[in-house]
Sequence to fold (223 residues):
Amino acid sequence: MKIELRGIVQNYHLGHTHVDLVVTEDSPDHYVTHQMGVDIKVNRGKVLMFLAGIYGIRPGEIVWPDHIRLTEEEDSMSLPL
Amino acid sequence: MASGLPDYYRGVRPRYGGARIVSDSKQVTKNIQTNLVAISGRGMTYGGAVWLDYTLTQANSRVLLGCEGVAITDLSFLRLNDYGIDQTKTLPVSLNRYDPISFIYSVGISYGITFESSLILNYLEQHGTTPTVHFRLVYALI
Fold:
């Protein structure tokens, strides 16, 4: 099964920050959302390990597009004023 | 004799995934940016809105929309109202309602804002209070 990460969404809901992962499974049109956690900080390693655990594959088999970038830890994001 | 392109060459549909929505209400922190939504990925907005109904003024506060770490819109409710920036697609964030008597403020988010790596929706409070901000964002990931 080819798993490709398509997006990481952090959104505030019912008093907590939810982190969702959007992936495609095999078909490029089959989008699936996984709830990774609540009020957590994420980095590339945590995301890969989480998805690897769900799909029972090695982390290196997950396709990570170049345009999705995470630094060491990502929580809430600010913008330059 | 046939002429023109066959039908299957026309109107290539954008290959975006299904529409997604995030919506909720959040009490923001005074005098700083509060993150409402943060998306890492590539996609496009279908629309959205941010609104609040408060007991004090929020005229100088603003909704910030950022793509790839750049704030692409950051005008306050007051400035949007002063200059009549209330047409969809004039700016990525445009004014829907500005009521300085009842303290009701609302902005809309345009359709068709593409982002290549990240999209962020924040609220910058500028009056030293903690209003509850309601938001809704509809988008798709590629």
